[in-house]
Amino acid sequence: MELNQINKRLTVSPQITVDDVKAIAYAGFRAIICNRPDGEGADQPTFEEIDAAAQAAGLKTVYMPVTSGKVRDEDAADFGEAMDTLPGPVFAYCRTGTRSATLWSLSAATSSPTADILAATKAAGYDMGGVVRRIVNGGKTPTDQTDASYDVVIVGAGAGGISVASSLKSRKPDLDIAVIDPADIHYYQPGWTLVGGGVFHAEDTAKTMGSLIPKGVHWIKAAVAAFEPKDNAVILDGCRVVGYKRLIVAPGIKLDWNRIEGLVETLGRNGVTSNYRYDLAPYTWKLVQEMKEGRAVFSQPPMPIKCAGAPQKAMYLSGDHWYKNGALKNIQIDFNNAGGVLFGVKDYVPALETYIAKYGVNTNFFHNLVSIDGEAKKATFEVAKPDTDKTTVTVDFDMIHVVPPQVAPDFIRVSPLADAAGWVDVDQATLRHKTFDNIWSLGDVMNAPNAKTAAAARVQAPVVAENVCADIDGKSAVAQYTGYGSCPLTVERGKIVLAEFGYGGVLKPSFPKWLLNGTKPTRAAWFLKETALPPIYWKAMLRGREWMAKPESITAK
Q: Can you give the residue ranges of the Beta-lactamase hydrolase-like protein phosphatase-like domain (predicted)?
């Protein structure tokens, strides 16, 4: 926990944990302000969890969430009012502390000289020079002056962002590249399914971001506030401005936990879990081990979501454990899916149906989870079957694995880069933006009609790298993405149905059938998932070594 003191009354900090709250109280603070919306990060505790710990420690709390980079004057006024009314000293936090420092700076602008604001925030470790420019510019961040400028700027240091940075460096070592991402930790999220199944340990899926940023690439540890594509500029938290010649957008997807009423309050308790959060995947395995009888519900929200097979993976691994320890005969498994089919590519459905029958799963289609009461252990689903009126049904559960609805990040949805649905609007073959020809996108955030998986990003990164390099050389696009995605469906411990497909559900197997038949459960696919893919991710994909990911020529027939 960091204590970045701005003045005697206010200290700001990056994200805190529940365990930090006691130390905050012990340090003499009397109130906590949370400026970070729930669901921003995969390892982020909810405000409800922080609030409960704060109340137990006798601290006042205020939940004042501000979207990353979207600090409004009204937000600053609210922050100033809270500072005036809360007992002090006050502890405020967000992802990095920048939003909290920005809120204070803007709220102090009416009563303090800008020189004093700059000095106080600099001493606390935050550069508010951009905020001061906003103040003197009447509340708008000017983009005619940049704090830094690069040949290529990459927004997001997830699987797509780091991979494309490495692929670019391998092709043009002299390129001046910056990656923008505020996170300290990078996660191998495909591994969380196996954490929830008792195969991996959670800590094995995490590495420090600094250890993964490619050599020679600048890491700007900040959140993006806005895009100004007509000025070739990106505005960051703290109102700093970064210029670019070419921009690559890969910030991933937002998990919208709050869209399900009551979910945030009960996550990680009362039998409510999700493999979509780093700290909850171990809880999934704990629940599975402890469950001897009752009802286990597995939910799947409307598309799009990252890894469309993940909801089923959790269910199959749980069912396999109960099958092998003899508890399955006393456990009812429900799969409540907002969609109308078991899996979107029909070639893989027969193998999956075999396991649905093996584990005695009740499949309920067109069932979308809308609310949950953790203490009562009841979940309510909206039922929207074709040609019928919508209804709701409430079920009891002893364990429920929840997959949250998913949307593009807020700063993307409100940007000039987004389509009507909020996703970055690209040509699905070249991954170049349809309006701004010096912008490309890859990963979960863009609107090409492919499965949102790490395997897809692995193939997309070389395509973007090739096309960006071609553009630098004054050429047209040379590489195309054909929609490849992969979903290793863990149907039991030791066997996987390896779904590989492209646009339109066309099968795109990586191996000959005699070696690995993807439409059947195989041990070879399990070996690939458990043993081969993690080192391929860390040591090949993120380092620009494009194993089995050679870009397809745009002229290929």
A: 4-110
